[in-house]
Amino acid sequence: MLALKNVSQFSENNFNDDSLFALIAQGIESNGYSILPTALPEALTETLFTHQQLMEADKFKNAGIGRGKEYLKNEFVRTDAISWITGETEAGADWLNWVAGLQSYLNRRLFLGLFSFESHFAHYSPGDYYKRHYDAFKGESNRVLSLIVYFNSNWLASDGGELVLYQDQQDQVGTKVVPLMGTIVAFLSEEFPHEVLAANRDRYSIAGWFRVNTSVTDRVDPPR
Ligand code: OGA
Ligand code: MN
User: Fold this and answer.
1) Whose CA is nearest to atom 9 of ligand 1?
2) Over the stretch 48-88, which tens digit does the pLDDT of each residue have?
3) What tens digit of pLDDT does each residue of 178-192 get?
4) What is the distance of C-alpha 117 from the center of its chain?
5) Disulfide-capable partner of 64 in 57, 71, 185, 193 (CB 3.0 to 4.6 Å)?
6) Lowest model confidence (mean pLDDT) among 10-19, 141-150, 176-185
7) Residue 159 is part of a domain; what is its CATH number?
8) In this structure, is residue 201 part of a structural domain?
9) Given strand 81-84, what is the order of strands in its sheet?
10) Which residue, by CA, sits nearest to atom 5 of ligand 1?
11) What is the number of domains present in the chain?
12) For residue 122, which atom of ligand 1 is closest to its CA?
């Protein structure tokens, strides 16, 4: 069994969303991150898992780093394939609805000022990885909170593909997260370098980011 620091056990049969949101908030408040195995509501997990499995392969495009001009595939950094989530599908709408509840809770409880959210399904084929990186750089981005959930059953230690969350720039050990079905990970985007180790089997997840609004006067930043 992999050593996980600050992992809260959570029974999915026994919660309303506020108690789950409270656990996520507590982790963020105390440690800057929260790792909750088997925590996403079961019905939502099932809907998202099924949707991701049914999505046609051609809906996926190769993942890029950034957008627009910076939308360049960079195989040195990451090799997964992604599909951005809109509310146009029932599964996507269910997900965004649950996320909106989390966003509202975190804003009430932690005053994070979360303003918008963007997310994508990700599929790592065997051998795919995402090298150590930050999701946001201080002062350069309005991404403040990263949120990841996983859709993989019966994941074995030999399957690899762990998320490794590092405490800071110096940390070379990190905390390993097994990408098991329904596991939720949330962390402050500017604080924690992290990476995805290469997996030996297909690895399915959603990765998303809450942004704060950096608009000045009457200009409102759209999600990028
Ligand atoms: C990302 C990321 C981690 C994971 O997409 O930025 O770090 O475990 N994903 O999928
Ligand atoms: Mn990341």
Assistant:
1) 207
2) 999 999 985 555 555 555 444 334 456 678 888 888 999 99
3) 999 999 999 999 999
4) 11
5) 71
6) 10-19
7) 2.60.120.620
8) yes
9) 33-36, 184-188, 143-150, 203-212, 114-124, 81-84, 61-62
10) 207
11) 1
12) 10
